[in-house]
Amino acid sequence: MRTGRPDAPVALITGATGYLGRHLLRHLCDGGWQVHALTRSDPAASNEQAVHWHALDGSTERVCEILTATMPDVVFHLAAEVRSSHGVADITPMVSAGVLFGTQVLEAMRQSGVTQIVNAGTYWQHHDNQPYSAYCLYAALKQAFADVLRAYADLYGFKAVTLELADIYGPDDSRPKLINQLADALVNDAQIDLSPGEQYIDLVHVDDVCSAFAAAADALCAGAPGTFQCFGVSSARAMTLRTLAERLETVSARHLRANWGARSYRPRETMQAWRPTTPLPGWSPRVSLEAGLLSLLTARGLRA
Fold first, then answer.
1. Per-residue pLDDT tens digits for 77-125
2. What angle do CA 147, 279, 251 make, to 5 degrees?
């Protein structure tokens, strides 16, 4: 990435303690970036020693202090409270993480003169491949923040990119995602109750998603001030759950003890594959599905 600086480019990451955030900060550190990260927990508790951690206190003023002190070339905004469904107690943390905190970051960027940001969106903003149709409240909040981000680009000359992400998978993942549940069932030879299995899943390996963020940061430098762009990060090879189960069986040489139809489809299940209108230019997945699934299964205990 060309920044005009003689030293390493500087990144600031929000959501750095999440699954994607942890992988992205390592990816950027390995790529020669100087990486700063925001956290609400104790920075001393992190084992990422190459990263400069900055504690938040909930105030916009504190975020302004951090941006002014670090002056990143690019902000990578990943922070969110991910919920496929929600209850009353989820409203405040979801809106705070999804809209309030992101807007605090944008205002801190404006006050400090930082103008480049790569934002994480989601394919859940496009239920059944619609231009906009929220799968859930989380997706609606992603859309709301994208509108705020566009306003800051229009009003204050920001250069902004939103990457709408397909399902992210990979090793070292403690999230209760379906792909991980399938892998655990195979590894442990356990039964698993599933829907009829005709919904679509679009998987992109976490390493490829990290390279997409780095590519988007490079593209920002060539963009004009006041630019807001939205790109899709997809495998372009979405498959049904049944097909994914077959791929896992082939890679593992094991039989998945699936009880097909034991569960009903969730509301607003993905019954049409997402096809991004504008894929990220110059980027495509490098980790094949077979290699990615094998690494996932191996990390979760598969033995030959």
1. 999 999 989 999 999 999 999 999 999 999 999 999 999 999 999 999 9
2. 120
